[in-house]
Fold this protein.
Amino acid sequence: MTWRAWAEDEACAIRRAGRWRTVRDLDGRGPRGTLADGRPVVSFASNDYLGLTSHPAVIAAAQDAAGRWGAGAGSARLITGSRPIHSRLESALAEWKGVEQALLFSSGFAANLGVLTALGDPDVLVCSDERNHASIIDGCRLARARVAVYRHVDLDHLDSLLTAAERAIVVSETVFSMDGDTAPMAELADVCRRRGALLVLDEAHGVLGPYVDPSGDVLLVGTLSKALGSVGGFVAGPAPFVELLRNRARSFIFTTAMPPADCAAALAALCVVRSAEGEALRGRLRRHLELVAPGRRAPIVPVVLGEEERTLEASEWLLARGLLVPGIRPPTVPPGSCRLRVTLSAAHTDEEVSRLLAALDALWTSQPNARPA
Ligand SMILES: Cc1ncc(COP(=O)(O)O)c(C=O)c1O
């Protein structure tokens, strides 16, 4: 069989399973834009939780930095690609998280790969929550460590896996990206302390918490691409760990440094996040969330519809009402749990949220099981 025929066969199998994906351009800024056919839509599926991708101070900082340092860094950080803005951003991130040091990566994905591969080896047991993100799963695979997957937020299961381990890492998201539920932070930290395990927490979606106590052997993985409105990732924690990552994490060492403009954007966004304006934006986001899904703690509202076809139909139905929420299908979520992953942003207007709510109410009336608990 030729490679071309093989690729066509593989693509056919994905199509037959109802899992074919295409890129859809949204021409706009923030949640509003037009599709290629000219239809105006409001997106309810982005991770720009605070609307900082379009904040004037964030855009201005990126423009200034591009003017001063150019469009790209030109090389890896450890060669000649490090600019003062990289170090400034790392210091600001460490201070924000209340830890000694932070290290930038070109994405949150690269940060998870970096931390797990730098710390894992065949003598290490990595325990990973079964709903962790693909970047954590791939980090575990690449780490050459033994890997044990524990049932979702099941601390008894985790504890039992740790009994026989001498050196262990426990890795979890703080807010799970596809379900919007949260990990029990204090209890996780407690299990790790008792068992002497290192805790790695991915806070990618933790815009509204939960709070992570940074004391002890905890490494925080973060992204600049969601609430901080830019692109890039970081690992933050005690100096010995971060210094080791700087010398060992291959996804940090062997790649070009983040563009200075993206660092400057993230730094300006961080200033907003830590200001009274940031508090007001989070308040607005919480109010939107309380309207759409009262009692939930993260601005991710899963509408689980089961099979691919039903999910795509629901997505098209929303699109006909000007609401863009693409269907999420395997391998992003387990088979049979296809969903609309509705996300909210402080950038949404009250009217847009009311429109979403009316549409979701109609969906939930026809499919009551899809209403999140
Ligand atoms: C939990 C989690 N970790 C890491 C990432 C990767 O972050 P980035 O988009 O910065 O690569 C994502 C992205 O969706 C995520 O949901």
Residues 107-109, 112, 133, 135, 173, 177, 202, 204, 223, 225, 233 surround pyridoxal-5'-phosphate (CB under 6 Å). The first strand starts at residue 27 and ends at 29. DSSP finds 14 helices and 14 strands in the chain.
